[in-house]
Design a protein that fits this description.
Layout: H1 4-9, H2 14-30, H3 37-60, H4 70-93, H5 95-98, H6 103-144, H7 154-174, H8 194-198, H9 219-227, H10 235-240, H11 244-265, H12 286-301, H13 313-331, H14 338-393
Helix pairs in contact: 2-3, 2-4, 3-4, 3-11, 3-12, 4-11, 4-14, 6-7, 6-9, 6-11, 6-14, 7-13, 9-11, 11-12, 13-14
Length: 394
Amino acid sequence: MPSTSNHAAGSSSPLTSLGRSIWTRREQFHSVEDNHESSAQELELQYFQKHVVDLFHDLSGVGADELLSIAWTQKLLDVFISCLEEFRGIFLKNKEDISKPPMDHWTDAYLDRSLKALDICNAARDGIDKIRMWHKHLEIVLCALDSRQRPYCEGQFRRARKALMDLALEMLDGRDSGSAFSQRNWSFGRHNTRKDRHRRTSSGHSRSHSWSISASWSAAKQLQSIANNLVAPRGNENAATNGLVGSVFTMSSVLMFVLSALVAAIPCQDQGLNTHFSIPPQYSWGIPLISLHERIMEESKKRERQSSNGLLKEIYQVEKCTRHMTEFVDLVQFPLTEEQKMELEQVLEELASICEKFKNGLGPLERQIRDVFRRILNCRTEGLELLSKGSNLE
């Protein structure tokens, strides 16, 4: 797994490094002679499509044990950032065409989807906070049942039982869309400050950079809103824009998939996985993307995952391990037999492994989501400026 510093700086990830090579490749396109300008644009758009294919092909090649893990989700966000930066470069290189019909309609639709995406990022940020709460309870269990200083005693098990009950209540509350967590949103800033209190809306909920996420907000409905009218461009639209609308459709589909995978993995308010993907065969990147979507859907349909807080592998491990631990704590009698001690040590080892994954992975994952939020926001701001400049010239 990449280190915290690597993800925080975004400088050492292979996928991010691959994204940086885009700019070198783009400089090569810029060196094409003026009379071959259309060919250069066509090559750049083709490269973008191939770039998306390659990245998602690598993502889809993981085994069942890796899919939807914290590490895989980090790679997914790396892929999204790489695609978004390439897409942004295409936008900036074709400024004069962005505000011309039918490109202006496609651009405006993408910018609207990106606005809605910001709330999904905020909801995922809240979901990570939920997991952090669960992590604290797990650490209490590990601390309570630490036998290095003393033999196991009833007091240790009472404390562990209390932590497990608190964890069960937190996880049950996480499935309730009206829970306290679902009414909080910090827009990736410090919470509980005087400034934030002044920014609260009349309904009592904090305002995000995109909109106000209230107790009635639904991740499922937000995803459906983003997916609405997401259809491939017609032939005449492609011809009129020299293929530019195809890149917008590609990025819109990538955005939709990444957001739906994020909502599926991380506890979000009113999760929903019924988003339908329809990608015409001429878009080769659709093959790995649809394959991943189908694998995620299959995972969600498994009996043991249907009532889960999220499809993140580590969440499943927490649920499975804490069930085992709760049953053990409830039935144990003193003094413990050697067989019981061995069983307990095995479960504690599993819990310690999960805690280590949370300790090392949640911070970098949250920083990536912050980065995705900022990049989507910056790209949207640039797009709005391009549309505005184009309208002023007319």
